[in-house]
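Today's session is about reading a structure prediction critically. Students often jump straight to the picture, but the first step is always the sequence itself: look for stretches that repeat, for charged clusters, for runs of hydrophobic residues. Only then move on to the predicted structure, which in these notes is written as discrete structure tokens rather than atom positions. Here is the chain we will use throughout the hour.
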Amino acid sequence: MGKVAVAATVVCAAAVTAAAVVVVRHRMKNSGKWAKAMEILKEFEDKCGTPVSKLRQVADAMTVEMHAGLASDGGSKLKMLISYVDNLPTGDETGIFYALDLGGTNFRVLRVKLGGVGNVKKEFKEVSIPPNLMIGKSEDLFDFIAGELAKFVATEDEDMQIPPGTQRELGFTFSFPVKQSSIAGGTLVRWTKGFNIEDAVGADVVEELTKAMERAGLDMRVSALVNDTVGTLAGGRYGNSDVIAAVILGTGTNAAYVERANAIPKWQGLLPKSGEMVINMEWGNFRSSHLPLTEYDEGLDGDSLNPGEQIYEKLISGMYLGEVVRRVLLKMAEEAEFFGDIVPSKLQKPFILRTPDMSAMHHDSTPDLKVVATKLKDILEISNTSLKMRKVIVEVCDLVATRGARLSAAGILGVLKKIGRDTCKEGEENQKSVIAMDGGLFEHYTKFRNTMQDTLNELLGEEISKNIIVELSNDGSGLGAALLAASHSQYLEYIEST
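Below is the predicted structure for this chain, in token form.
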């Protein structure tokens, strides 16, 4: 009996030792995986760093590219498009004007009654475009738009009617690439955002709309064709004469600003009376060797519909931030088994992690990061994550958002440098420079917005930053188009002389 007991004890001891070895090996394996995940995170952090010295290089590069783009067409990655807007709203505009805002699968028609700053009455209607019209014929699309516009005009009440004997005037926000030839003329370069109407490419979009309005029996003149960023600038200027630039940070990104007309070498013809010209930068296409690109950005760019293009946009805009986070997490899953032995299949799907979801995780203030856990489960079907893992995911979100926000601030500094608003000149110590901002990324992603503002202050220094104001300009593009119709009205000289 004694020998059996000893033998049993020996067997048990051996089993315990073997189990302990397995546990130790498992822990070592897990700690090795965790170390690998931390290595991936650290490398990403290092590669996407944005120290002030680098941001200043980015700002300087932006200014250089602006000069090059103003000198000649094709001279820079920045198109620096002449908008033909040389009269921005002053705040004194009065009358009733229409706007058509076409920028995606929906469009808006607006009716605006202007009675000076603070006295604006607005009515609008949003219309979805049937999918078949997005790939059909130009005439069909514009007939549909003109028909909806005519229906909207028919709802005018007595308070919103134009004076007898005058023609209704419209500002047309058209957020697709256009080669503009005048304030109210421009040919479509190419479609984006799911549209593909071949016979419209190369056509003047104002002419197409005008012909459609005539077919609909609508007597209306297009007074201004504008890009949404230029519209935001106009909307901002109407309420504040210190507005000198507009930046959109939403799904995509762009900037427009007021330039001295004599500082545009590629401008042909007489200089405008105002001496100013609004430039649509198309800054999403900016690129520089100073931009902190990582393997994840290069992969995203290579897999995109436009490789090598819109590099700056792919670093800072809402379309792409969540996708960069997904790519970092995917590498952790593949190389460090971050989510277990099997790579979650949903994590392999491009663009499944949208920036609003990334923002929700980044702003999670619950002690156990419950929002992060819920988003992982609902979107990626990943459950049973530890708090330690969830903290890493928040850190990835923070790195991507911080880089984007700081690079956005560097871009704004580049614009301010170009127009000499980055320094304090004698006698102009109190001159304010206001940047009108629009877009869901800026409006709703609080940490992104705050980081961008803090970085801009850091780059400008305490004295200058007191005079640089960044403010949200909601619905700038729709209202801005109506305002530009007013400031370029055919009745302007008559109004001014009475």
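Discussion point for the tutorial: The first strand starts at residue 81 and ends at 82.
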